[in-house]
Write a structure and sequence with these properties.
The complex is a heterodimer of chains A (134) and B (131).
Chain A lengths: L2 H13 L3 H17 L6 H7 L4 H12 L3 H18 L4 H7 L5 H12 L3 H17 L1
Chain B lengths: L4 E5 L3 H11 L3 E7 L5 E6 L8 E5 L6 H13 L2 E6 L3 H10 L4 E8 L2 E7 L5 E7 L1
Parallel strand pairs in B: 1-4, 5-8
Antiparallel strand pairs in B: 2-3, 3-4, 6-7, 7-8
Classes of the chains: A mainly alpha (134), B alpha/beta (131).
Chain lengths: 134, 131
């Protein structure tokens, strides 16, 4: 057995022995993956997993390294990039990934990606156009 | 600052290019001849070709500490780098069928499932599925 294999077993024993907690965290992430386009909040997520919202928040952060809200924002922004690349309008994209206001979507998108959804879409189109030109 | 290129040390660039493209499924992005037989050789994810490039760097052949470090990691079974996959078990099965050797079979570690394979260029590489 290599040093790394021993370390895997050691760390599993220390950090991942509570299967119930892990299943709550995984179940919450799966729910967000499948329902990111809906209105989600900690009350709903904790209700689904039969736990308190503070406990859920703590567990999710412990096992995924970020809060459910941070995870959901990253998921939605990632999906919105895919929709924008396919030519969906900014406002359609906003609602399709679960955000409620195009202006706050644009602000958040710029903060995370470094450019507005409109600029991102223009850049994507110009890149694919220049590829076709050659 | 932006993360544009990350490097993986390889003992043979041509062999590495073949493995990383034909076996792992990356595509070649940059191939610039440098001194002697060395190249600035990068590969990228096929679906995200504007994403982060992997530089297949021949450092173990030219810098002794790089060679020593790479060998120490290999001997200890420690991955030099890791790639995310949709499904670790499926990727394991696919790579096994292509003759790739694994030192860690698909293993759940809390909220991830990992496996570790030999890239035939001196490195262990870990694949990770987020559960």
């Amino acid at each position: 057995m290599t040093f790394y294999q021993k370390e895997i077993n050691r760390i599993k024993g220390i950090c991942y022995s509570n299967k119930d907690q892990i299943q709550i965290a995984i179940g919450t992430r799966n729910y967000m993956e499948n329902n990111f386009d809906r209105k989600l909040n900690l009350d709903l997520l904790s209700h689904i997993k039969f736990t308190s919202k503070f406990h859920l928040l703590r567990l999710f952060k412990k096992y995924y390294g970020q809060t459910p809200k941070q995870y959901l924002i990253d998921k939605r922004i990632g999906q919105s990039k895919s929709y924008l690349k396919k030519g969906m309008s900014v406002s359609e994209t906003c609602y399709a990934v679960g955000f409620e206001s195009p202006s706050s979507f644009s602000t958040l998108f710029k903060k995370k990606i470094g450019q507005t959804p409109t600029d991102f879409q223009i850049e994507q189109f110009s890149q694919s156009q220049s590829k076709n030109d050659f | 600052m932006k993360v544009k290129v990350l490097s993986i040390p390889v003992q043979n660039q041509e062999k590495a290019l073949k493995f990383y493209t034909e076996t792992l499924g990356f595509v070649k992005k940059m191939d610039v001849p440098l001194s002697e037989q060395n190249r600035w050789l990068t590969v990228v994810n096929k679906e995200e070709q504007d994403g982060t490039e992997i530089l297949l760097e021949p450092s173990p052949n030219h810098f002794e500490p790089a060679k020593v470090y790479q060998k120490a990691l290999m001997d200890a079974g420690i991955p030099y780098a890791q790639f995310n996959v949709e499904n670790t078990q499926m990727e394991y099965d696919r790579l096994k069928s292509l003759g790739v050797e694994f030192s860690v079979k698909p293993t759940e570690m809390g909220t991830v499932k990992i496996a570790v394979f030999n890239d035939t260029c001196g490195n262990n590489i870990q694949i990770v599925e987020i559960l």
